[in-house]
C-alpha cells in the first residue's frame, strides 16, 4: 500500500492501521463474539504479515490491557519501521473504564507508555475520550500536550473524539483526530470536512462497527470516499481478515474520487 500524509504532521502512514486492543484485552469489548488473547509468537507473525502487506501504522492505548507491554517486546528491534498511535486519559481497571484528563495524569501516562513500549517517543498521542470532548479538551490540557511535542516526546497530538464539536476543537489546536464515520453514522462528518479544508489528519475508528458491519466493502468505500480520511484503524488478530481488509481498502482507494 502506498503511504499517505497524516495531515500536515510530516508523518507518512499506511491507509490501514492495525488496532491492538485484542493484543492485550478481551474483557469489556464490543465485538460480536468472544476471543482468546493470542500468544506473542502469533502476534509476531501477524505483525510480520502486516509489514509485508505495507502496513506501518499501529494503534494502542493504556486501556488496552497488556497491549503496550507486548508491543514493546514485539517491536524492540524494529521501532523505526512503525508509526505508533498512543492515547492517554482512559484506564481499564477491574473490568471497567475510568478516566482522568488532568495534565498530571497525562504526564504520568505518557512516561509509562514510553517505558512499556520501549521507546523514547510516540508518533501520535491522542486524548482517549469519554464523550465529554469539549470539557476534556481544556486549554490547560491542550497546552500540556503541545509541550509534549516541544520536548520531543511525541511527534503529533490530537484526540479520539465522540462529538463533532470536540473533533473540530481538537483540530483547531492540534494535529490529528480519531473519529467515527460509517454509512450508518455520519454525525462526525463536519470533523472530516474541517480536516480536509485545513490539512489535518483523520484516523477513522469503528469503520466496521466493531465487527458488526455486514457489508465490509461498502464501509471501506464510504470511509475513503471522503477526502479528509487519512487512514482507517481496524482491530484484528486474524491473518485472513487482515489480508482481506488490505484488499478491500486498495479497491476502495482505486475507486475513490477523493
Average residue-wise pLDDT: 96
What is the N-to-C succession of helices and strands?
A: EEEHHEHEEEHEHHEHEHEHEH
Bin the strand percentage.
Answer: 15-25%
**Helix count from the secondary structure assignment:** 10
What top-tier CATH class fits best?
A: Alpha Beta
Q: Report the strand count.
A: 12
Question: Order of strands side by side in the largest beta sheet?
Answer: 3-4-5-8-9-10-11-12
Helix fraction by DSSP (H/I, runs of at least 4):
25-40%
Low-confidence stretches: none
* Secondary-structure class: alpha/beta
Oligomer description = single chain
Question: What general outline do the C-alpha atoms trace?
Answer: globular
In this structure, how is the largest beta sheet organized?
8 strands, parallel, barrel
Second rung of CATH, namely the architecture: Alpha-Beta Barrel
What fold name goes in the CATH topology slot? TIM Barrel
Give the CATH H-level superfamily.
NADP-dependent oxidoreductase domain
- How many domain regions? 1
Amino acid at each position: 500500500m502506498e503511504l499517505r500524509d497524516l495531515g500536515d504532521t510530516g508523518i507518512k502512514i499506511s491507509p490501514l492501521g492495525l488496532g491492538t486492543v485484542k493484543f492485550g484485552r478481551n474483557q469489556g469489548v464490543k465485538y460480536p463474539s468472544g476471543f482468546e488473547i493470542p500468544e506473542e509468537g502469533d502476534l509476531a507473525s501477524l505483525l510480520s504479515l502486516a509489514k509485508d502487506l505495507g502496513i506501518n501504522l499501529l494503534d494502542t492505548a493504556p486501556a488496552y490491557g497488556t497491549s503496550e507491554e507486548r508491543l514493546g517486546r514485539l517491536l524492540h528491534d524494529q521501532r523505526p519501521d512503525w508509526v505508533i498511535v498512543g492515547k492517554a486519559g482512559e484506564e481499564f481497571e477491574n473490568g471497567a473504564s475510568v478516566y482522568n484528563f488532568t495534565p498530571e495524569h497525562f504526564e504520568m501516562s505518557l512516561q509509562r507508555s514510553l517505558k512499556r513500549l520501549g521507546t523514547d517517543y510516540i508518533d501520535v498521542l491522542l486524548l482517549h475520550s469519554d464523550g465529554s470532548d469539549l470539557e476534556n479538551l481544556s486549554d490547560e490540557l491542550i497546552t500540556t500536550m503541545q509541550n509534549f511535542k516541544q520536548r520531543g516526546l511525541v511527534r503529533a497530538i490530537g484526540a479520539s473524539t465522540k462529538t463533532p464539536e470536540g473533533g473540530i476543537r481538537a483540530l483547531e489546536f492540534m494535529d490529528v483526530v480519531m473519529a467515527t464515520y460509517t454509512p450508518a453514522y455520519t454525525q462526525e462528518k463536519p470533523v472530516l470536512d474541517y480536516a480536509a479544508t485545513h490539512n489535518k489528519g483523520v484516523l477513522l475508528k469503528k469503520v466496521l462497527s466493531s465487527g458488526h458491519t455486514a457489508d465490509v466493502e461498502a464501509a471501506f468505500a464510504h470511509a475513503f470516499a471522503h477526502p479528509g480520511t487519512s487512514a482507517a484503524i481496524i482491530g484484528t488478530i486474524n491473518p485472513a481478515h487482515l489480508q482481506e481488509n488490505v484488499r478491500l481498502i486498495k479497491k476502495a482507494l482505486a475507486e475513490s474520487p477523493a
